[in-house]
Amino acid sequence: MDYQLNAFMTIVIAVLVLLIGYFCVHKMSILKKYNIPEPVAGGLVAAVVTYILFKQFNITVNFDAHIQQIFMLMFFTSVGLSASLGKLKEGGKTLVVFLICVIIFVLLQNALGISLAKLLGLDPLIGLITGSVTLTGGHGTAGAWGTVFEQDHGIQGAIVLGMASATFGLVIGGMMGGPVAKFLIRRYQLAEEIVTENGRNEAPPASEIAPFEYPKKTRLITADDAVKTMGMFAVCISFAFFMADFAKGQWFELPTFVWALMCGVILRNILEHIFRIEMFDRCIDVFGNGSLALFLAMALMSLQLWMLADLAGPLVIILIAQTILLALYLYFVTFRIMGSNYDAAVLCAGQCGVNLGATPTAIANIQAVTNTYGPSHRAFLVIPLTGAFFVDIVNAVVIQLSIGFFG
């Protein structure tokens, strides 16, 4: 029996899931200890409930996918609208070096997936599917490329396999980031846990805050600013839908969220540097953090965990190996190259989301860590741009070259 919930009920349940996540993290010491993001905790509870309903009562609960996409586009739009050229320059060398670390891992991810697929007697392209296509690319890339693998390369069930692999990455990426950062911070004594009366970090002025930094800081906004900001979001999302349809099948075809992000970057800097219009960063920040939490809750509560349970043994082996590879890479490569300091540890938490989940997971990971140990301005400058924009372009090129070679 299938139950299809509309957009309103999907939002209601997503808010409930966030409240459950907040309760779990603050009442279960192990979740707080390892910096598990609240949307991840609540979303996994909801996913387990839907799994039980499916297995025990043959009930499938389907949530509104369109409203989930809207919140995803709002999140990526907020990344773009926050990308002032001045703040982009702040990322500087750190952004370039971290992006190189991520690119190298994308190549290693595919090399491991393809090698294990061959070793286990599978088509090499299945190794690619369980590599950067799904783990770095996420559900959107898995769906888009899954069709190509099925129609052009004869990989039956590529879409289901891709969705299951992306689901695995989303879950593990959200659960792995906090513990990895905590291990590095405690092992090298990089920071102490902060203790405040209200549980909120003291924050500098808004002009000095990077996008998504200090998510629990109160932002003072007006109704007028909120309406104008919603207008900018509407322009960017409308442009994204238009370009996604217009570019379909063309050489410049890109995922919808990339168009939203690009429009946000262009609109922000035209208004700010050409028309000298003051941007409403506090509104953008509030909308961005709110849509991030709701999207992540919706994504996790929509997970069909029985897809993971149905994965064949060899595929589970590949995915577990990918997780181990990332953990070793973070410890021996990323952490050391990025400076072996607190910022480097937070960046490692973010890379868990970038290379083994999704950009919203990466942001949630670093927010969970900085809520416990204090701010990392550098991480909040680097992670959103790397995960939301640059890595998708790199991944698309790598996937295309790999298919050309192994296809």
3D structure, described in words:
The chain is an all-alpha fold and 407 residues long. The protein has one domain. The chain is 75% helix and 1% strand. It contains 16 helices and two strands. The protein has helices at residues 7-27, 29-33, 38-57, 65-81, 85-119, 124-133, 138-153, 158-187, 223-246, 256-273, 281-301, 305-309, 313-337, 342-356, 359-373, 377-406, and strands at residues 2-4, 60-62. The protein has a two-stranded parallel sheet. The longest helix is centred in the first third of the chain and has 35 residues, at 85-119. The protein starts with a strand and ends with a helix.
- Alpha carbon gap, first and last residue: 39 Å
How do the strands of the widest beta sheet line up side by side?
A: 1-2
User: How many whole angstroms does the radius of gyration measure?
Assistant: 20 Å
* Order of secondary-structure elements: EHHHEHHHHHHHHHHHHH
The helix-and-strand class reads mainly alpha
- Helical content (DSSP H or I, runs of 4+): over 70%
